[in-house]
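Journal club prep, notes for RB
We'll compare a predicted complex against what the paper describes. Inputs for the magnesium ion case:
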Amino acid sequence: MAQISDTFRKEFPLPDLAATARLGKAIAGGLGVGDAVALWGDLGAGKTTLARAILQALGVTEDVPSPTFTLVQSYDTAPPVAHYDLYRLKNAREMAELGLEDALDQGAVLVEWPERAPEALPPEALHVRLGIAEGVRRARVTGPARWAKELKNLIHV
Ligand SMILES: Nc1ncnc2c1ncn2[C@@H]1O[C@H](COP(=O)(O)OP(=O)(O)O)[C@@H](O)[C@H]1O
Ligand SMILES: [Mg+2]
């Protein structure tokens, strides 16, 4: 969903895992309390891989599992990060139990399958749309203007 504040808009090729790691590191560098990163894309698009790259850049050395069944996995990083996968979300009541608002009060959130609960995202979220165009993996990134500074050193289309 495009927001009025989505003044940053760029497309990055992600030909390999190293490229995803660089994007993850750049996003991690801009993450603060109250920030949300919406990870859009089909099954296998690379959402969990990018979430993992962000968490590893924040110093997580343990395994970063996909929260497919737990729906959320929290990390004691700085800022604290809650990694959501809403694919199996059943209803609004279950969403309320996941504490996304509290997670945003205390830290940053990474949300796979944001289309399952679009109203839960803050309007200033960074949106990363992962997909394949002309046979190449890409990330289309939109969000508040301040992200231009964080992502300025990455190769873009
Ligand atoms: N930039 C990339 N280059 C090559 N392979 C990738 C890249 N990003 C992700 N992958 C691979 O794609 C597969 C699916 O990734 P995953 O992150 O689990 O997708 P999703 O969470 O969107 O379902 C994994 O095997 C992963 O290693
Ligand atoms: Mg995933």
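Talking point for the session: The chain has a mean pLDDT of 95.
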